[in-house]
Amino acid sequence: MDHLLTPLTTTTKKGLIYYIIAVICCTAFFVHEFVPVNSQEFIEAVNIHAESKVVRKNARKEVLDSQKGTDLYSRYLSAKSETDRLWEEVTLLKEKESFLGFLSFQHFLGEFGWSFGLLIYSIFNLCISFFRNRKSIIGEVSLHSCLAFISIYFITWALQQYLPDYNKTVYVIYSVLITIFIVLSTHKLLKNKREYLEHLKISIHNFFHFLYRDVDKNDLIRPEKKVVFRKMRVDITNKTVGNE
User: Fold this and answer.
1) Which CA distances in Å does 7 have to 40, 134, 135, 142?
2) Contact indicator for 179, 143 with CB cutoff of 8 Å
C-alpha cells in the first residue's frame, strides 16, 4: 500500500512547490504597492522645506525690486535670460530623446523589456505544460499564469499613458482577463495540435497496416505485380520514416 501512495505524495509535493513559487513571485512583484512611498516624517520635512522656499522666493523678490535700475539688476536679467534659453534647449533635447513617453529608449527597455520577456517566457512554459498533457499540471499552469499576469500588469503600467486613466483595480482586472484568455487560448491551440498529431499517427498506422497486412492478406495485388509493388512499398516506407 505504501508504494502506491508514494507517487501521489510526490506529485502533491511537486504541485505544492509550484504554488509556493507563484505566491513568492506575486509577493515579490507587488509588495511595493502596499508599502508607503515615504515616511510621514519625510513628508513633513518636504512640506516644511516647501514653505521655506516660498519665504526665500519672497525675500529674493524684495532684494531684486530694491536693485531695479542698477547695473547688478541688469546683469541678473541678462543671466536669467540666458539660463531660460539654455533650459528651453534642454527641454527640446529631452523631448527629442524620449521614446513612447519614456525619458529615453534605454529607459523604455528597462521598464518594458523585462516584462515583455517574462510574458514570452510564461507563454513558452504554458505551451510546454499543456503539450506534455500530464494529469497533474495545475501547479505548473498556476505558476506560469501568475508570471503571465505579472508581466501583463507591468506592460500595462509601462504603457498606461496611452490607455484610459483608470484606477489600479481596473488594470488588475484587465490583466487577469488577458491572462485567462492567453491560458485558455494556449490550451486550446495545444489541444488541437495534440489531436491533429494523434489523428496523423492513427492515419499513418492505418496506411501501413493496409500496405503490409491487408494487401497481402486479401491478395489485392496480382502475382506478376507483387515484386514491383513490394519494392515501391519499401521505397514509400523509407521516405516516410526518413531513411532517405
Assistant:
1) 54, 14, 13, 21
2) no
Which amino acid, one-letter code, is at 176?
Answer: V
Q: Minimal CA–CA distance to 147: which of 32, 33, 30?
A: 30
Cβ contact 197:186 at 8 Å: no
> For the CA atoms of 156, 162, 165, 166, what is the dihedral angle to 10 degrees?
-30
Q: What is the pLDDT of residues 124-171, one digit of tens each?
A: 988 888 887 666 688 888 889 999 999 998 888 777 766 666 677 777
Query: Burial letters for 93-126: b for 16+ Cβ neighbours within 10 Å, e otherwise?
Result: eeeeeeeeebeeeeebeebbeebeebbeebbebb
Dist. CA 150–CA 154, nearest whole Å: 6
What number is the average pLDDT over the span 53-82? 88
Measure the CA–CA gap between 82 and 89, rounded to whole angstroms: 11
What are the cell numbers at 156?
500595462
Residues in the chain: 244
CB environment 140-151: b (16+ within 10 A), e (fewer): bbbbbbbbbbbb
Digit-coded pLDDT (tens) for 69-117: 888 888 988 998 999 999 999 999 888 888 877 788 888 888 888 899 9
Query: How far, in Å, CA of 26 to CA of 182, rounded?
Result: 18
pLDDT over threshold 50, residue 119: yes
Look at 145 and 210; give whichever has higher pLDDT: 145
